[in-house]
Amino acid sequence: MNPRRERDFQRWLVVVSLLAAGVAAAAEAPSLPALKVETVPTPEDTGQYHGVVELRLSSDHGAPLVLRERDPDDDEPVPVPIPGRQFPIGREHVLLLGWSSVGSGTSNLHALLLHITPKAVVLEHNLKLRIVRGRAVLVVRRISPDEVLLGIPDWGIEKEVNSFETSLAVGKGWMESMREIRAQTVRFVATEEQPTDTYYDPPFFMADRLAPARRAAGGPIREIPELPERVAWLSVTSAGLAWKAGTR
Q1: Would 248 be classed as within a structural domain?
Q2: I want to staple 115 with a disulfide (CB 3.0 to 4.6 A). Which of 26, 33, 104, 122 is the partner?
Q3: Given a cut of 80, is residue 106 above it in pLDDT?
Q4: pTM
């Protein structure tokens, strides 16, 4: 694919993600805080690197939260995620999902817990899962207007079947305070699908779009990527991210 088509494809991915997020937010509970999402796409794309140069999150009032691409010491870019779906948490918080990739057959799935205050948008918790692209899916289960569960697939098993680096990191800042969680310290449970479960599997969202047809057929259909057999559940509330009881 030539560079121009790659840039067009990158912009298409950003637009599709933003449109999907807007439609999903409109269908959510009316308590959704007003979160405005803007991006600056990357000027060039190699076909392996996916992300944005800048992600700007704002409300009607107050200072915006701006996340920018930065280079660590080894000069390998740390991409800012392409924004995706929003899930309201109570009346002042939003869980924003996103994704990025630097190639090597893996994708990064991001979950940002944002607090919308009268003065600013604040990033309170940050999660980044790096996992083999074919298994890159998050399960989202709404428990109440004030809580959702985030199903994290077993990322540790990937190290047994390939050489790609997989990891889960959580923190309270953008990049500075992230700490890695070892898969061996987490209890994964069998996925028992609920009718209201949604799936975040960018960039093509096959599992989420075709899940109703799969359920109607009574089982998996060939066109849908396999859903994770086991997940670890994270509870997402206005208090933050916490492993569900019995998971850790």
Answers
A1: no
A2: 122
A3: yes
A4: 0.78
Q: What phi and psi, each to the nearest 5 degrees, are found at residue 161?
A: -120, -5
Q: Which helix (H) or strand (E) holds 65?
A: strand 65-68
Three-state SS string over 112-152 comes to EEEEECCCEEEEEEEEEEEEEHHHCCEEEEEEECCEEEEEE
**Neighbour tally for 19: CB within 10 Å:** 10
Tens-place pLDDT, residues 156-202: 765 544 445 788 889 887 766 778 888 878 888 887 778 788 889 88
pLDDT digits (tens, 9 = 90+) for 5-40: 555 545 545 544 554 555 444 444 444 557 899 988
Q: Are β-strands 65-68 and 52-58 bridged in parallel, bridged antiparallel, or unpaired?
A: antiparallel
Q: Give me the sign of the Cα torsion angle 153, 54, 87, 125.
A: positive
- Does a structural domain hold residue 69? yes
H helices of the chain, in order, are 3-27, 158-161, 206-217
Q: Which domain holds residue 148?
A: 3-243
Sign of CA dihedral 71, 81, 136, 191: positive
pLDDT 10s digits, 223-236: 455 567 788 999 99
Among candidates 62, 39, 63, 61, which has minimal Cα distance to 52? 39
CB burial readout 97-113, b (16+ within 10 A) else e: bbbbbbeeebbbbbbbb
209 secondary structure, DSSP code: H
Q: How many domains does the chain have?
A: 1
Amino acid identity of 214? R
